Amino acid sequence: MAAIRYRVAGLTLLFLHLVLVGWLTLRPLDVTWVTAANLEPLAGIKADLVLGPAEAVRRIGEALLLLAPLGVLLPLADARLDVAPWASLVRTVSAGALVSLGIELLQTAVPGRVVDVDAVLLNTAGVALAHLAVVPACRARLRRRMSGPGGGTGGPRAGAGRGSVLGRKRREGGALRREEGPQGATPRIPRVGIAP
């Protein structure tokens, strides 16, 4: 039940964040001139550093923070606790990179916007940093809470009382055995002949 709540909350927040990102990045800009597209990695970051430390921190920070919430919202929308940390990181960073690339490609049709490969790099780095800073610790805390007494639901679950077999097996750490009767024949798929 908690996984469904996390998934709904994650999907809702993810949708709202992507709407905000789309509004910020895909609005036409009313500018008198536009710089050329930056297709050389790290050239835009070097140009930002030339503008001085305050302006460089502002520009680089904006690019890092734009998609950083995806590093937390994508795993939250997935709502699984038993995921390998590296697999989760790779999936989340890959999805963040694809979203950033999609935004950059869509900006080619928006007046006043240009493609910047450094924006993709910084957006992806922001997703990775947010994921590493928040997700492993939160998953570990939720796993501890779910494995604690009552499974974190605030009370014993149905059928998990002290006298029940399910409760006894859970306390002993043993595997649960299915004790219901047969539920019918296993469905079979008919063979399909090979066409001539």
Automatic annotation (TrEMBL):
Pfam families: VanZ
Stretches with biased composition (Basic and acidic residues): 172-181
Domain VanZ-like, chain residue ranges per copy: 15-133
Gly residues bias spans: 148-164
Sequence intervals crossing the membrane: none
Classification via InterPro entries: Teicoplanin_resist-assoc (IPR053150), VanZ-like (IPR006976)
Chain intervals for the UniProt region annotation (Disordered): 145-196
Name of this protein: VanZ family protein
